[in-house]
Amino acid sequence: MKQIITTTKAPAPLGPYNQAVLSGNTLYISGQIAINPETKALVLDDIKTETHMVMNNLRAVLEAAEMTFENVVKSSIFISNMDDFSAINDVYGSYFNDATAPARETVQVARLPKDVNVEISMIAVK
Fold this sequence. Notes:
- This protein is α+β, with helices and mostly antiparallel strands.
- It has helices at residues 47-64, 85-93; strands spanning 2-5, 20-23, 26-32, 72-79, 103-108, 118-125.
- It has one domain (2-125): CATH 3.30.1330.40.
- It has two helices and six strands, in the order βββαβαββ.
- The chain has a six-stranded mixed sheet with strand order 1-2-3-6-4-5, covered by helices on one side.
- α1 (47-64) packs parallel to α2 (85-93).
- The longest helix is centred in the middle third of the chain and has 18 residues, at 47-64.
């Protein structure tokens, strides 16, 4: 059985999907971009600020499912420019303990929703 996870502390979906789905003990979080959930504005000041906004949105969804970044087992990072990899990686890494960090891939893509620079999805387990 699946349970839909939603929170007003992360941006509402931009299409026919949910912020996250909990199936058993596994949480599947849809890709998050840098939309401020309070103002609905994109946060694109610089790549580090943008990545922090994405991670804060992911944290809000995890918290709505009563989880933390420690529960994350897999991340997928989509970026529009591989030259931003180091800055994104620095911010992303600050949210995890290196010894227990999740599996991950980072892929450069041609374009992301709303022309953002980074989108991250996650899988977490209780």
